[in-house]
Write a structure and sequence with these properties.
The protein is of the alpha/beta class and 326 residues long. The protein is built from ten helices and 13 strands. The strands form two sheets. It has a nine-stranded mixed sheet, with helices on both faces. It has a four-stranded mixed sheet with strand order 3-2-6-7. The chain has a single domain, classed as 3-Layer(aba) Sandwich (UDP-N-acetylmuramoyl-L-alanine:D-glutamate ligase), CATH 3.40.1190.
Length: 326
């Protein structure tokens, strides 16, 4: 297992989708009542990449986008946020970018996600084999990239190539049932992927899913830390997180916030955690910075545009102190 000290290089290759998010405007509007919508960059991997660049890191995306106006919107947005797109390949035909219609509201929140013929699932072995992995500090991926072929095989090939180049592997479980052919396939693939990774982040439901039973999720997270991973973050929603390493565990709480929506928290958490490790913070402080990042994002409209800068994160944490655990 590679040394996580390499993370301090601050230059990350993120594998997975970029998409377009639509938000009914003004905030609080139901989708069915909307007559005006705000568009912004979305997709879990693109959001993570933006979270990194907003906090002063470097990130490049490895994926495919549709060779159409929506794909070009995503490319323009990646440029806007300073995310590298050398490894983003347009694909023609019937492939389409992910589109999400997401409400900025908590009560009866609705997210409608269109993933038919997803362009990012068209990522190939040739795409990942064309990358020079040596300049990067780590490879980051989310579970969605593994949900279909040829993307699944390409992602595992990227794991192999990144490992050969000495990169740590960072995995956000990010289980989306609608993307998978079956729960059984998802559980098998997630088990395979998590066994290969150095940093694994997921919630209690996701770890329970991998383990085959919700009651065994924490046990699974602990087993991964004991056998292969260096950091496993077991998130528990409003109850905070348990972070497990081969040498021990720590528990942290969440920051109170006036949330506008429930989306974007996980992507922001991972970006904040990674950039805190880049900056040399200890693990507990890194988890807290991830939690603060999540709290900020859910209080703002959008996901990518809601990602905080390092200065905003510092100010938020100074104002709110250290959250207590339940």
């Amino acid at each position: 297992m590679e040394n996580l000290a390499r993370l301090k290089g601050g230059n990350f290759l993120v594998v997975g989708r970029a998409g377009m998010d639509f938000y009914p405007d003004p905030p609080g509007t139901r989708t069915e009542d909307g007559t005006r919508f705000v568009a912004c960059l979305g997709g879990s991997s693109a959001n993570i990449a933006v979270a990194i660049t907003r906090q002063g890191g470097q990130a490049a995306l490895l994926t495919r986008v549709a060779d159409d106006a929506i794909g070009r919107f995503c490319l323009n947005q990646l440029d806007h946020y300073g995310v590298g797109r050398t490894h983003v390949t347009p694909v023609g035909g019937e492939a389409r970018n992910s589109l999400s219609v997401v409400e900025t509201r908590l009560e009866d929140h609705q997210s409608v996600i269109y993933r038919n013929g997803a362009a990012d699932f068209e990522m190939t072995l040739a795409d990942v084999e064309a990358v020079d992995y040596a300049p990067y500090s780590a490879l980051i991926t989310t579970g969605t990239v593994l949900a279909a072929e040829p993307s699944r095989s390409a992602a595992f090939r990227a794991f192999d190539l990144a490992r050969k180049a000495g990169l740590p592997l960072i995995f956000d479980v990010d289980y989306r049932p609608y993307s998978w052919p079956s729960a059984e396939v998802a559980a098998e693939v997630y088990s395979r992927a998590s066994a290969l990774c150095d940093v694994i982040v997921g919630n209690d439901v996701e770890f329970g899913f991998i383990a085959g039973s919700y009651d065994k999720g924490l046990e699974k997270a602990r087993a991964l830390a004991a056998s292969s991973a260096k950091i496993v973050v077991y998130k528990m929603g409003e109850n905070g997180a348990i972070t497990i390493t081969p040498t021990g565990e720590l528990r942290t709480g969440i920051y109170p916030t006036k949330a506008l929506k429930p989306t974007g928290a996980g992507d922001s958490f991972l970006g904040g955690l990674i950039m805190a490790l880049v900056a040399g913070h200890d693990l507990e402080q890194a988890i807290l910075r991830g939690s603060a990042s999540a709290a900020i994002v859910v209080s703002r409209v959008g996901c990518a545009p809601a990602m905080p800068t390092a200065a905003e994160l510092d100010e938020f944490m100074a104002r709110n102190g250290v959250p207590s655990t339940v």
